[in-house]
Design a protein that fits this description.
The protein is α+β, with helices and mostly antiparallel strands. It is flat. 15% of the residues are buried. Strand 9 and strand 10 form a beta hairpin.
């Protein structure tokens, strides 16, 4: 056997013994380590749509490390069965209590209505024209009210007011879950059901009986109330916005005037300083007597003459 073969065999034995020692050390450390505490978490086994009711076949459980369990996750199957779903669930998603309706809340649309709220349906073809079929369940919208009237009502013939802001859409026609195409055909958009308070429901009822309601789609993260004023025909009739270049020119002119006024206030005002007197008085002492003698100063313009 050559020296090269012996060297290869020796290195193989060294590496093999080292690997065996490392595996043995790792197994000993694992055996002596503190076991990880796990918690059984309820998960969705299949996709569950918004408004659906959870059945035993739609859920499963999986073990999670205790420190990785999502807050509010359900740990018992019976806590999820027969409860409505507020938001769609995807397979293998942990089921949170906040995403489900309370037990006994009912099935379908009723399970999506929180306590103290109401579902109000707007049935008007004008809803479709405002958002061109892009409004879907789960979106948030503003509700606009348009009323037409005579010329003597102060509006000039009609007005549009933002009646409600940041209102959730519960259903579009008979659909309570957003379609996979993310679009609703306008010919199928015959009604929209909104989640509102009782007072808002009364406003919607009066509005759709006395005027026309339109929807304005909102960004989901835009939850701040907008400062709006009613738009009237009288205001639109004489409204003619200036082009952008004229708007910029006006802003620059206003800025220049403000800057000039600021500099004018900061410029110091000249103060007239009186000329020094042309006479000085000299104090004289003669024994015990004191006197004063006036001496005329030469005029500076005479250069001392």
């Amino acid at each position: 056997m050559s020296i090269r073969t012996l060297l290869i065999v020796g290195l193989a034995l060294v590496f093999g013994l080292s690997a065996a020692a490392g595996v043995g050390l790792m197994m000993n450390n694992r055996a002596g380590a503190t076991p990880v505490q796990t918690v059984s978490v309820v998960m969705a086994a299949v996709a569950i749509p918004r408004g659906g009711t959870i059945t035993a076949e739609q859920i499963k459980t999986a073990e999670f490390p205790r420190n990785l369990v999502p807050p509010g996750a359900l740990t018992k199957k019976e806590d999820a069965i027969d409860r409505g779903v507020f938001t769609p669930l995807v397979p293998d998603e942990p089921i949170l209590d906040a995403k489900l309706a309370p037990k006994g809340a009912g099935r379908g649309l009723a399970s999506l209505i929180q306590k103290g709220m109401r579902a109000f349906t707007i049935q008007t073809p004008n809803v479709a024209s405002g958002v061109a079929g892009f409004v879907m369940p789960g979106n948030r919208v503003d509700v606009l009210l348009t009323i037409t009237g005579g010329d003597n009502d102060g509006t000039g013939g009609g007005s549009t007011t933002t009646l409600l802001q940041n209102v959730e859409i519960l259903a579009v026609d008979q659909t309570i879950d957003a379609p996979s195409s993310n679009r609703v055909e306008t010919n199928q958009l015959r009604s929209v059901t909104l989640l509102v308070t009782p007072d808002q429901a009364a406003k919607l009822d009066l509005g759709q009986n006395k005027g026309m309601l339109h929807l304005s789609l909102r960004n989901f993260e835009d939850v701040r109330a907008a400062r709006t004023v009613p738009a009237t025909m009288h205001g639109l009739r004489f409204l003619q916005e200036r082009p952008w270049d004229e708007k910029v020119k006006g802003v620059l002119e206003a800025f220049g005037k403000a800057l000039a006024e600021s500099k004018k206030r900061e410029t110091p005002v000249a103060v007239d300083v009186p000329e020094p007197p042309r006479q000085v008085h000299v104090r004289t002492l003669r024994g015990l007597y004191e006197g004063r003698v006036a001496v005329d100063l030469p005029d500076p313009a005479s250069n001392g003459r």
